[in-house]
Please model this.
Amino acid sequence: RDPVFNQAYRQMSDVIPQSVPTPPVATQNHTLAGGAIEILGIGPAAGKPLVGKTDIHVYFRVIEVPAVSYKFQLAVWPTAAGASPTDALPASVARSAMRATADAVYPSDRWQKGQYIRERFSIVLPADWKTESIGVGLAATSTTGDRAKPTGAAPANEPNLFVLGALS
Model:
């Protein structure tokens, strides 16, 4: 009946899926913490359209217990058909708040080997975006302020942004 414990438990149960996730869009070659964390993919919240305020999920697999605690930020932008993930980001990029997992209740340095983690990001897509798809990227910053370097694709004008794919 401890409200603080109950809140922490609810937040942790939200980020640890009960089964192996199968993200709608798989990422390619992205890891964090020297390979300790694999970024599996992305997907919209079930049953929610990609308009206005929406939730986008990022899925991770913990290969080894990471020694680094990260704060994450999601970035999304309108994309043209056939655009390359390394194309420069447009002027209009929507970003979530930078935060640790489960509102810092379960930071990445406490994740356990073999776990799958689902990060839920709420983001507002501008109404003037007239596009069939959006690019999705992730920034990861350690608690010491160091930005993680992508191991896969990154935009030419933002080299510290992991390009995770496109959603439509």
Remarks:
- The chain has a mean pLDDT of 90.
- The chain has one helix and nine strands.
